[in-house]
Write a structure and sequence with these properties.
The protein has 223 residues and is of the alpha/beta class. It has one domain: 3-Layer(aba) Sandwich (Rossmann fold), CATH 3.40.50.970. It contains nine helices and seven strands; from the N terminus they run ααβαβαβααβαβαβαβ. It has helices at 2-21, 29-36, 51-58, 71-85, 95-101, 103-111, 138-142, 158-170, 183-186, and strands spanning 41-44, 64-67, 89-94, 116-122, 148-151, 177-182, 219-222. A seven-stranded parallel sheet has the order 2-1-3-4-6-5-7, sandwiched between helices. α8 links the parallel β5 (148-151) and β6 (177-182). The longest helix has 20 residues, at 2-21. The protein is globular, with a radius of gyration of 16 Å.
């Protein structure tokens, strides 16, 4: 019975990815936001909940995706690149086990004040909080080893929160940040949504649950 339900969930995720292929030229908000913030490399290991992002990366020639054999290596490579480039580096992993494998590298970056942006795929909102296959509470899991974290549930907030993550990682004491993206958020169309320009710094007001980008305490938001 358990295998049957896992099979149904995998079929649901495959359907989400097929839907994404028909919208890939409409919704590039995540990758466009990375490009605007000067990201040129993304280190990661492919997984089911980040496949739409990988498709979008394939179509963006200015950002190179470097595949690793283990998510921990992706975090360490991002750490090393950030040290050498003096800019935020990006690593990417898929939900539960992939996210857990990345923690050692992110803890090292946190302990040594290195700016790393971790993008983690999450199970779709439609099956969230049902103990879905490899589901993990990413916000709580990464809180001790990140300066700031966010889980995006509304596609129109992707540009804002991606920029916020990069700027928070680089401002004040440099440290890692984590952004979680549920699978169905990645596959929604977002016509008319434009990423922020490089010179624009987004200031968030009270009810968003975010401190200023220069704050030292951990901030978390579910949007």
């Amino acid at each position: 019975m358990v295998a049957f339900f896992i099979s149904l969930q995998i079929l649901h995720e495959l359907n989400q990815m097929l839907m994404w292929r028909s919208k890939i030229y409409e919704c590039q908000a995540v990758i466009e936001a990375l490009k605007i913030e000067g990201v040129r490399f993304v280190f990661g290991l492919p997984g089911t909940t980040i496949m739409p992002l990988l498709d979008a990366l394939y179509d963006e020639p200015s950002i190179r995706y470097i595949t690793v054999r283990h998510e921990q290596a992706a975090a360490h490579m991002a750490d090393g690149y950030a040290r050498g480039s003096n800019h935020v580096a990006t690593c990417m992993a898929s939900r539960g086990p992939g996210a857990a494998n990345m923690t050692v590298g992110l803890y090292n970056a946190y302990a040594e004040s290195i700016p790393v942006l971790a993008i983690i795929g999450q199970v779709a909102d439609s099956i969230y909080y049902r103990d879905s296959f490899e589901e993990l509470d990413l916000m709580s899991f990464f809180k001790p080893i990140t300066k700031w974290s966010a889980e995006v549930h509304r596609v129109e907030r992707i540009p804002e929160l991606m920029q916020r993550g990069v700027r928070t990682s680089l401002t004040g004491r440099r440290r890692p940040v984590m952004i979680s993206l549920p699978l169905d958020v990645q596959t929604k169309g977002c016509a008319g949504i434009f990423p922020l320009s490089p010179g624009h710094i987004f200031h968030l007001q009270g009810s968003h649950g975010l401190g200023t980008s220069g704050s030292y305490g951990h901030k978390a938001v579910t949007a």
